[in-house]
Description:
- This protein is an all-alpha fold.
- About 70% of the residues lie in helices and about 0% in strands.
- The longest helix is centred in the last third of the chain and has 17 residues, at about 60-75.
- The chain is elongated.
Amino acid sequence: MTYQFGEKIKELREKQKLFxxxxxxxxxxxxxxxxxxxxxxxxxKQEQLEPLSKILKAEFTELHTLWLADQVLDLVKDQPxxxxxxxxxxxxxxxx
Length: 96
């Protein structure tokens, strides 16, 4: 399963030629944690999104959107009616 958020932050980090340890230190986490986030096996805490967007000089809204999408994916990935449920939620959001 592909997690978009992890791929994006790895892409941004590598584009700036930053090492995992440099970014992890600025987020006050260890390198292994950040590596797992990039691989999609661990989720970043929401309060770390804004600092990460500043470190990577990235658009907060884009990172937040990908982070949220991965949160939803993690919640529904094994559910048999996930697609239908997501369509229902989408309709409800659009009505607001």
